[in-house]
Write a structure and sequence with these properties.
Chain lengths: 321, 321
């Protein structure tokens, strides 16, 4: 890489967050922020080359955006609005200045979409593998956080959007599909923006009680929520929102266990079903896909018939719990 | 690596921060923290294999500690007390479970020394290179932050501790010195704990106005401070605290440009010289090494004679500004 750390910091400083609350931004040992009193949500999540993505399938701009999206998704899942972020980038020698600029530009574009302000971070060289690691802080919007530990027996289970899109997009890319970037599924894989507008509606109507984002696949993530809540769940397969193309391609499993959906999974009392309907009427795709029950684990039913869960979603280490 | 992400998260959860302010800790999409009102300092800094260290010279426990120390050092430099941290670890296949445990244990040991609480983070696989990236938040202790932009003309320049120790330790290690880990310099390289007690004294007596930590070398870091403050600095070489062994080995340059000192560099009005003396009398090594002047850049004098600055300290990318 033909660029010095000082130059990088200087370039990055252009993107510095502007806000009355930021007393001191980039350029010092740390950023100073005047914090409001109350509950704030802290997250940190990395996107690592060869583990989470390949540059052959995703350009630097998309990688930068994704690093923001996955963290914003976690903050939103807790019922908080993202406010600030810091970012560490590990840059291998072979990365060009142009690619680094695209990466920065992707980061700042995604941050702009969520109105999140850059506080600083670290730009480091790396020997072989590129990585980007973002930490983010948000302010809780309601009186309580929307955690994985809040699912209650009898509550309904909902999801935003469609499932399996991103995983099917990756499948298409890996299989040499030439439909280009405009393909809905490839677009969702490359550009996994969390459904912010649907989230605003859900929070506005105070619908969710427990919430999380689907990052590793519906079933594995729902299992995690149930474990934290000490409950079980029944999923009605026929109500899971699977795009027609995925059904035609017989890739329905991707909707259960594909991962990288970055849709919201939430539970809510049946009494709020009317509110869900209202949000739906506004044009936001919301599906009611199951119910929280006594017991443990996730059970899958198709039109009343129990189905065997064969694949639980993937873990980055290859092992499945 | 024979260990799953779930297992790692479970092991890590043991170390979860306990505090009344932590409403929800590890186990969800994010941690929820009840923040007090007022200025907080945010930092994020990574330690990357082959760039910042080699496992051949530093064991995993030391690497874990270092990742905490460098971030705590940044927070303290701003005049804030570290409170919380998140940590992302990128673990290559070849790393053993034992090494990962040592790493965790080092992280938590260092966090304990500063009473900093773990909020969460990310455990990811990595293809080739290990990395650890820590984000940390602290609460400003005084009415104003102690930034790099606050040096004032006529103020004196001070440093804590001794300079060049860590760089000389690395030099010894690289040259096959067999004195073992108890050697003062190797110890400082392997275990670069910021001088917390001296910091407390400085802050208690309200001595520093501008402050930063020395991470890339006295001269390059002082240049950065002067640039941010739009001032110049004169350094009196004979007053720079250089250990006798380093002088004997004719490695004085390491005290000016070696880096990784993790001592505090600060400016203060001459009127507080008596307070500096008081802290010194308590047994804390503090040196007054120069003065802030009108103009730009850093000038070096040895007993009144101007010296040429030949090496400015290193940058990780190999280029020097």
């Amino acid at each position: 890489m033909e660029i010095t750390e000082n130059q990088l910091i200087k370039e990055f400083k252009r993107f510095e967050g502007q806000s009355k609350a930021i007393i001191r931004g980039i350029g010092d040992d740390g950023a100073v922020v005047d914090m409001a009193q109350g509950p704030h949500v802290f997250v940190q999540d990395a996107v690592v080359e060869h583990i989470h993505f390949e540059f052959s399938l995703m350009d630097p701009r998309a990688v930068g955006k994704k690093a923001i999206y996955v963290n914003a998704s976690d903050i939103l899942s807790m019922g908080a609005l993202p406010l600030y972020f810091l970012v560490t980038i590990g840059i291998p020698e072979h990365m060009s200045r142009k690619d680094i600029r695209s990466l920065y530009s992707g980061i700042m574009q995604a941050a702009g979409e969520f109105d999140i302000r850059l506080l600083g971070g670290d730009t480091s060289a790396a020997k072989n593998d590129f990585f980007i690691d973002v930490s983010m802080v948000g302010k809780q919007t309601g009186t309580d956080y929307l955690g994985r530990d809040k699912a209650m027996e009898g509550d309904l289970i909902g999801v935003t959007g469609w499932l399996g899109e991103s995983a099917y997009g990756l499948y298409l890319l890996k299989n040499g599909f030439h439909g280009g970037k405009r393909n809905r599924f490839i677009q969702r894989y490359v550009n996994p923006k969390p459904p912010l507008e649907a989230w605003k509606e859900l929070v506005h109507y105070n619908i969710p009680v427990a919430m999380m984002d689907i990052s590793d696949g519906l079933i594995i993530d729902l299992e995690r929520m149930m474990k934290e809540s000490r409950k079980g769940a029944h999923i009605y397969f026929e109500q899971v929102p699977i795009p027609r193309d995925i059904i035609r391609a017989k890739k329905e499993n991707l909707a259960l266990a594909g991962g990288e959906d970055y849709q919201f999974l939430f539970t809510f009392p049946e009494s709020r079903l009317g509110l869900v309907e209202e949000v739906r009427k506004k044009g936001f795709p919301l599906s009611v896909i199951g119910r929280v029950v006594k017991g443990r684990g996730v059970k899958l039913f198709n039109k009343g018939q129990a189905m065997k869960i064969t694949s639980k979603g993937y873990e980055h280490f290859g092992a499945v719990s």
